[in-house]
Amino acid sequence: MFRNLLSRLFTEEPDPKPLATEDAEIAVAALLVRVARVDDHYNAAEKRRIDEVLARMHGMGLADAAERRSVAEMIEAEAPDTVRFTRLIKDRVSLEDRIAIIGAMWEISLADNHRAASEEMAIRLVSGLLGVTDRDSALQRQRVVGGS
What we know:
Helices cover 75% and strands 0% of the residues. By secondary structure, the chain is mainly α. The protein has a single domain (2-147), classed as TerB-like. It is globular and about 40 Å long. The model has no long low-confidence stretch (mean pLDDT 86). This is TerB family tellurite resistance protein. It comes from Paracoccus benzoatiresistens. Residues 25-141 form the Co-chaperone DjlA N-terminal domain.
């Protein structure tokens, strides 16, 4: 199952089709894990926040979200470099959903109440690669900071 999922997520197609719902959820979760791991301090607060974000985004319970995160951690470890990884998501996920992903990334980054420059740089990089404007990213960050 794990290898089949990797193949579905990371096989580049000339005419990419939208990801199946569960595959998209895991790809998004893997991207959130990647941002959380970028500062080498992937901790319980960040994992808990990822679970909460996934549960809210996808209308699932925390146990199901934790299970998705667990799979996403394995996927993230096997995923190609960030440029190729984000291209696959950009080609298969709507702009509205990509903006929501950036908002979720800001939530994860700020979950430990520590602003790490490496996480912020990673979010800015991913935003650009996903085709999300700096303005939309900043609005998402402001929403997260204002709601904390």
